[in-house]
Design a protein that fits this description.
Blueprint: H1 2-19, E1 24-27, H2 30-53, H3 62-88, H4 91-112, H5 119-131, E2 135-139
Antiparallel strand pairs: 1-2
């Protein structure tokens, strides 16, 4: 029962991280002040659709970032585990334990690190908003 609960918690965390993503932050210039927050949010949504229609992705490769963190963690863990295992008398066991521990730490680090959207997506959304009179101050 405990393992299934842990799996549900991890899946929920993955879903939440996947759904949250950087959004454009608009400078409150005269156009923004004229149209208001609600119209600005509508225009942001429209510009996001334009970027997706152009083939850009709002997700900047979160999966590959997680895989990279996991691989680096596994390698570092295996190396440090082998050294510790060699001192204790079993380098191979230490390397396996270190690799598993490092991979888990790397996976979690990659999972909860902030993701950046595809640069093409950022450029298209920013340009679309600029064409509509907004000034994009950054992404958050």
């Amino acid at each position: 029962m405990r393992r299934s609960l842990d799996a549900v918690v991890v899946m929920l965390a993955v879903w939440l991280v996947g759904c949250s993503g950087p959004k454009p932050v608009l400078y409150p210039n005269s156009h923004f002040q004229t149209v208001g927050e609600e119209a600005a949010q509508h225009d942001i949504a429209d510009c996001r659709k334009v970027a997706k229609a152009a083939g850009a992705s709002s997700r900047g490769g979160k999966g590959s970032a997680i895989a990279g963190h996991t691989a680096v963690g596994a390698g570092a863990g295996a190396a440090s585990g082998a050294v510790g295992g060699a001192i204790a008398g079993s380098a191979s066991t230490g390397a396996m334990i270190g690799a598993a521990t490092g991979a888990t730490g790397g996976f979690l680090s990659g999972l909860f690190s902030p993701s950046q959207p595809d640069p093409a997506y950022v450029n298209i959304v920013s340009r679309c908003l600029s064409d509509r009179g907004y000034e994009v101050a950054g992404w958050k």
